Amino acid sequence: MLFRGMRYATILQPGQVWMSPDRENPGRVVVDVFKGKVLYRMTPQSADDTPQETSRSEFRRWIADNNADLTDQDAKAGQKVSPSAELGKRIRALRQAVGMTQQQLADAVEVSRAAVAFWETGREGSVNKHLAGLCQALGVGEDTLLNGLAEERIETTLSPDEADLIALYRMLSPSRKLSAQKWLERQTNQHEPDDR
Fold first, then answer.
1. Is the separation of the CB atoms in 15 and 80 below 8 Å?
2. What is the DSSP string of 139-165?
3. Which domains, and CATH codes, for the chain?
4. Helix (H, G, I), strand (E, B), or coil: what is residue 55?
5. Contact predicate 105/164, CB 8 Å
6. If phi over 0 gives left and psi between -120 and 50 gives alpha, with beta otherwise, what is residue 139?
7. How far, in Å, CA of 27 to CA of 159, rounded?
8. Is the dihedral of CA 144, 147, 151, 154 positive or negative?
9. pLDDT tens-digit readout, 61-101
10. pLDDT in tens, 6-20
11. Residues whose CB is less than 8 angstroms from the CB of residue 34 and which lie 6 or more positions away in sequence, other chains included
């Protein structure tokens, strides 16, 4: 039963499929929900399956404006890697790249070795309090540690198409850069026998 004057918030969760009765209007699949934001992709899937980002309130407004209904649960969309797990992988990779043990990193950041192990296994713990120390110990900027993105000026000779690709890549948002990296990785792993 609905009561006049009461507002109900739609609970958004990864994997939800929202469809409008107007079949001309594409539906949306929730990929992730975090810090007031919703990452979603359109359905049916297009050739560019890059997730888009909006605020929770904007996503809920889209649901209301389009009379969209929760029609399905996309289990694949709900399977996501947590940001903490990704950060843990980056901490481990950067630590190994500079040749440090967990104990050496712990000493540099002034935490226990168990704390470093905790972070590297994807459990966030108190990592936010130690970002500056981690960045200093690992010799990277905060963007590199948090997003895996590094921007350095390196002199090299590029072909015109490589220069175009890099220029386009630099115009992308961090989430689209990650999607582009994943797409390129898939393409290099799916080579034809005649390609090599």
1. no
2. T--HHHHHHS-----------HHHHHH
3. 16-78 (no CATH), 83-147 (1.10.260.40), 153-187 (no CATH)
4. strand
5. no
6. left
7. 40
8. positive
9. 888 888 888 887 665 554 545 566 677 878 888 888 888 99
10. 334 467 777 888 888
11. 83
Token code pair at residue 158: 């590029």
Sheet strand arrangement including 27-34 = 52-55, 37-43, 27-34, 16-19, 69-73
CA distance 173 to 163: 18
Q: What is the CA radius of gyration of the chain?
A: 21
pLDDT at 106: 93
Q: What is the pLDDT of residues 126-160, one digit of tens each?
A: 777 888 899 899 888 877 777 665 444 445 677 88
Q: How many CB atoms lie within 10 A of CB 35?
A: 7
